[in-house]
Amino acid sequence: MAFGWIDEQARARRRAGLVRVLRPRPAESPLLDLASNDYLGLARHPEVAEGAARAARTWGGGATGSRLVTGTTELHTALERELADFCGFEAALVLSSGYAANLAAVTSLAPYGSLVVSDAQNHASLIDGCRLARGTTQVVAHAEPDAVRKALATHDGPAIAVSDTVFSVDGDAAPLTALAEACRERRAGLVLDDAHGLGVLGPGGRGAPHAAGLAGRDDVVATVTLSKSLGGQGGAVLGPARVIDHLVNTARTFVFDTGLAPAAVGAALAALTLLRREPERAARARAVAADLYARLTAAGLWAVRPDAAVVSVRADSPEEAVRWAAACRTAGLSVGCFRPPSVPDGVSRLRLTARADLSGSDIERAVRVIGETRP
Question: Is residue 184 over pLDDT 80?
Answer without folding.
Answer: yes
